[in-house]
Amino acid sequence: MLSVKSKKFGILENGKEVFLYTLKNSELEVEITDYGAAIRSIKVKDKNGKLTDVVLGYDTLQDYVVGDKYFGATVGRSANRIENGIIELDGNIYSLSQNDGKNHIHGGFNGFNKKVWSTEKLENGIKFSCFSPDGEEGYPGNLTSEVFYTLDKNALGIKFMAKTDKNTVFNPTNHAYFNLDGHPTVDILNQYVKINADFYTENDENSLPNGKILSVDNTPMDFREFKPVGKDLYSNFNQIKYGNGYDNNWVIKDYDESLRVAAEAYSEKSGIKLDVLTDLCGIQFYSGNYLDSFLKGKNGAKIDKHYGFCLECQYFPNAFEHENFLKPVLKAGEIYNKNIIYKFCLI
Ligand code: BGC
User: What is the C-alpha separation between 102 and 333, in angstroms, rounded?
Assistant: First the structure.
């Protein structure tokens, strides 16, 4: 049996009320706020039966308003970096906001993560919707998007749906930072990660994919077997230097648009294991390299570099620059429908 409860989270400067929703079944308890349609907590039982919160989040709405780390947020319209913020689509050039130096990142200055989404409670979860007008952050088309969060036993499902009235670029993701040791947090260097990929997309020194798709063989990018995040994190490998840690897109093996396990992770300490499933083609593994202690986490928890990792399912970033990358184009009249599942168990 699933219960969905809501409570007030805070009020924005413009007077708009923001809520916090709790989805709960016998295995999971998930808090999501309509501010950024963001996951604030995921509680799951550890090996001793203790309810353990395995994602980073903030205590107050104000922290989400000023925070720039995308904690748990729905990121869009387009996740990750787009070189110079320039997109060429149907012969038109679109200039997206340049909110990361000269590049565009995560939907711009006021992306999906800074919007208050409309909500609708469902039998198996909750639906968030938002409207993004033609030209917002430079993106073409009036876009209506929906994010469905549902619970099914030990799995949190995230479904992204959208439609547009003009061909546009659309590549949302969820930006949860996991720390499977739980709160209060320590760094994630001893937590194990496995990525279902033989190849990754090479980054240039600005963390933008340069179009090359390289084998993980004999490199620190090889996560085909479980290894602790910290194992090769301080190697001299250029990709790790460029990103200040892991911050790359991996090419999910045997992509055919069906749901498959893209990555797995576990903590020996808590015994909690996470499986990330998706029907998307890429997964950005980011080892929390730019986390800092500027804002505290929930219950005043310390947050610092490498205190959480993200496994962001998405189309390959910077796809418009490279002929060999699948383009995240949503055509007018078509319906976008992609999924991410975070599934938990004990090792
Ligand atoms: C990106 C990082 C970025 C972080 C926060 C991740 O998705 O890959 O480069 O620092 O988001 O914006």
Answer: 32
Rg (CA), the chain: 19
pLDDT band of 1, cuts 50, 70, 90: confident
Peptide bond into 81 cis (omega under 30): no
Centre of ligand 1 from the C-alpha of residue 146, in Å: 23
- The pLDDT tens digits for 51-71 are 999 999 999 999 999 999 999
3-state secondary structure of 93: strand
Residue listed under structure tokens 């620059």: 321
Q: Identify whether 312 is a catalytic site residue.
A: yes
User: For atom 5 of ligand 1, which residue has the closest CA?
Assistant: 69
Which tens digit of pLDDT belongs to each residue from 2-44? 999 999 999 999 999 999 999 999 999 999 999 999 999 999 9
- Selected catalytic residue, list 175, 202, 306, 322: 175
70 lines ligand 1 (CB under 6 A): yes
3-state class of 64 per DSSP? helix
For residue 56 and ligand 1, the question of a CB distance below 6 A is answered with: no
Q: How far apart are CA 315 and CA 322, in angstroms?
A: 12
> Which tokens belong to 257?
């648009």
The model scores a pTM over 0.90: yes
Torsion from C-alpha of 197, 212, 239, 281, nearest 10 degrees: -30
β-bridge mates for residue 8, sequence order: 19
Give the pair of three-digit tokens for residue 71. 């904690």
- Ligand 1 contact via 247 beta carbon (within 6 Å): yes
Task: Extract the tokens encoding 255.
Answer: 């992509």
